[in-house]
Design goal:
The structure is a single chain. The chain is mainly α. The chain has one domain (8-301): Formate dehydrogenase/DMSO reductase fold (Up-down Bundle). 80% of the residues lie in helices and 0% in strands. α1 (8-37) packs across α10 and α5 (130-150) crosses α6. The longest helix has 34 residues, at 42-75. It starts with 7 loop residues before the first helix and ends in a 7-residue tail after the last helix. The relative contact order is 0.12.
Length: 308
Amino acid sequence: MSFVVPSAWEVAGLLCKLFLYFGAASLAGAALNLAFYSDGSRRSVQGLLVYALIGSVLGFQAVLLNYLVQVGMISASGLAGMFDWTMAEILMDTPLGETTFWRLVAFTLALLGLVICLQLLARRQQAPTRRLNTFLVAVPAVALLVLAESFQLSGHVSVHGNLAQLAISLHVMAFGAWIGSLYPLLRMTSWLEPSELAWFMRRFGDHARLVLAVLLLAGLFLLWELLMSPAELWQSPYGLSLSLKLLLVAALLGLAAHNRYQLVPALAADADAAVQKLQRSIKGEMGLALLILLLTAYLSTLVGPMEH
Ligand code: HEM
């Protein structure tokens, strides 16, 4: 049993995957926050659209670069190999080509839609109407759906049945909704009144229960599908990486519970100190999420289940 030490190409591929995750999280986070946790002000709505736009630009570039990295790695002729067009054409007919195509479609849809949204918003003097807000939510949500579908074509789940494929799409959407909401919530802590902030944070906490249930159930189902037996969790590099992921997820859940049940209620008492603690805690959650995503990129790319 051995862990894979990534080559320079593989490190580049992992970083591309991380930016892809950031793109997915920004789309999900923007859609959810526009729907439920925005105070409706132009500043908040515009901030969320720009957040999704930056995520989509980075996601688009990461998907394209990842394709060139894979071409370069396979053609094995140095950096110039990334532009080996014969190899690039051959790879288009593989699952990598199909996955890349759908991911580029998703980010292009998001980019075009978000630019239109920002223009519509710029033309208005007042806060967006209900109808406009529905459109603003729909744009990142539709792009996220296409992106989440693309995860069925790649990774270890691609050779499993329909239920496992549904589970990975739900898992990706739920991860995006949770982790992608952290940055918008952190921004809100700097301008909302503590009582208003507490209301939005409680609302987020209530919805997060459902999001977490989907994330955890889908994740556990994926474990059930991908592992031959629970012993694989400590007998293979893939299993050990998953065990480490589970430990980090437990720590993240602990921190999220601390926010919801200790820091948010404290906003009513000593507001300034509580806001600062909440900001530090959300940043801690973002740091842990980054570690989980790095590990997820590693285990879904460089190591694999024993059965595969
Ligand atoms: C009980 C908790 C969790 C379990 C059991 C779990 C398990 C899994 C499994 C088995 C996969 C498939 C990996 C593969 O293709 O080999 C997966 C994929 C994924 N997980 Fe989790 N996970 C959990 C929580 C999380 C959390 C909290 C996050 C985000 C912070 C996350 C993010 C992801 C992402 C983005 C993928 C897609 C990987 C890819 O195909 O690129 N997971 N997870």
